[in-house]
Design goal:
Layout (H helix, E strand, L loop, with lengths): L5 E4 L7 H13 L5 E4 L1 H4 L6 H17 L8 E4 L5 H10 L4 H5 L2 H8 L6 H15 L5 E4 L4 H18 L7 E4 L27 H9 L18 H9 L2 H13 L4 H27 L2 H29 L4
Helix pairs in contact: 3-12, 4-7, 4-13, 7-8, 9-12, 10-12
The structure holds adenosine-5'-diphosphate and tryptophan.
Length: 319
């Protein structure tokens, strides 16, 4: 039997190379019969700006389609077009131990950074569990930082099944890329750190971001260590093994400056994303078409979620 892949991406800012390598690329590779959605309910935990949310949803939709997601092969939709997940979140909330959520790194990290704790942020993993369980998903490919949320999903499904009988299918966790993509400052690339290489930033703006990647101050002639260099690390995500080996050898030999490496990286980024630039612009220029495509996906997804929700309601006596 074929395995159902499911994943979501938040429309909370510009999509960047880290999102592409850690998540989107894998979604597009494994798209037959997959369910992929734009997690706009989740974005409410951080965004708080209606027009920005609408715009971000369009940007994410256009990005996926431009990079190769085909709505005839995958079910591609907007999370909030399936309100059944909110009801499912409530059912799951009642088997969710406080301690389980209190241990969530992502929540703890955000609070540590000074974010005011809100109930929505705290229960975010339950909504994510509902997203996953609502479609009887088998495989959930995400980046490393989301792995704990999937553990929580499994724990909630196990707790519900133990209390009410077999209701939810347990999903498998598949890490997109074990490694995190660094940002231009060498820390994890993340929109919240303002250190990203956005996929659809191009031309001069892209060049100036690439040129500003932090390196040590070794001069042109000095031999350099590729393994501790952010430029090289970024290059490994977009270059072939032979190209990587060539750059590593040039680093070690000396006579090859960080400026050279940055230009090589820029070229690979343009090669990787350049073919999608035009498609992206064309899709964004026709927001009604984007809407239509998302609606087709939502109709399919909703029918599926209604079946699972019905099962869960009956299991706990809400029929
Ligand atoms: P951000 O950190 O920019 O807010 P998100 O948390 O919205 O990104 O992540 C969306 C998806 O992209 C997740 O599956 C996440 O694991 C993946 N991802 C985000 N940043 C990186 C990164 N630097 N390296 C690898 N994967 C990443
Ligand atoms: N929380 C995920 C992120 O920030 C997005 C997401 C929401 C998701 N629901 C999901 C990912 C369900 C996988 C499955 O990246």
């Amino acid at each position: 039997m074929s395995q159902r892949y499911l994943s979501g991406v938040q429309p909370s800012g510009e999509l960047h190379l880290g999102n592409y390598i850690g998540a989107m690329r894998h979604h597009i590779e494994a798209q037959d019969d997959a369910y992929y959605f734009i997690a706009d309910y989740h974005a409410l935990t951080s965004l708080g700006d209606a027009e920005a949310l609408r715009q971000n949803v369009r940007h994410v939709a256009a990005a996926y389609l431009a990079l190769g997601l085909d709505p005839a092969r995958a079910t591609f939709f907007r999370q909030s077009d399936v309100p059944e997940v909110c009801e499912l979140t409530w059912l799951l909330s009642n088997v969710a131990a406080m301690g389980l959520l209190e241990r969530a790194h992502s929540y703890k990290d955000k609070i540590a950074k000074g974010l005011q704790p809100k109930v929505g942020l705290f229960t975010y993993p339950i909504l994510m569990a509902a997203d996953i369980l609502a479609y009887d998903s088998d495989v959930v490919p995400v980046g490393k930082d989301q792995a704990q949320h999937l553990e929580i999903t499994r724990d909630l499904a196990i707790a519900f099944n133990a209390l009410y009988g077999e209701t939810f299918k347990l999903p498998r966790i598949v890490l997109g890329t074990p490694e995190l993509v660094p940002g231009i400052d060498g820390e994890k690339m993340s929109k919240s750190y303002n250190n990203t290489l956005p996929i659809f930033t191009r031309g001069k703006a892209l060049k100036s971001l690439v040129m500003s990647i932090k390196t040590d101050s070794k001069g042109l002639d000095e031999p350099k260590d590729p393994d501790t260099c952010t430029v090289y690390k970024l290059y490994t995500f977009v270059a072939s093994p032979a190209e990587q080996a060539e750059m590593a050898a040039a680093y070690r030999a000396g006579g090859y400056g960080y400026g050279h490496a940055k230009l090589a990286l820029l070229k690979k980024l343009e090669e990787t994303f350049g073919p999608a630039y035009e498609r992206y612009d064309a899709l964004l220029a026709r927001p009604d078409d984007l809407e239509d495509r998302l609606r087709v996906g939502a109709t399919r997804a909703r029918a599926e979620a209604q079946i699972v929700l019905g099962r869960a309601r009956r299991a706990c006596g809400l029929d």
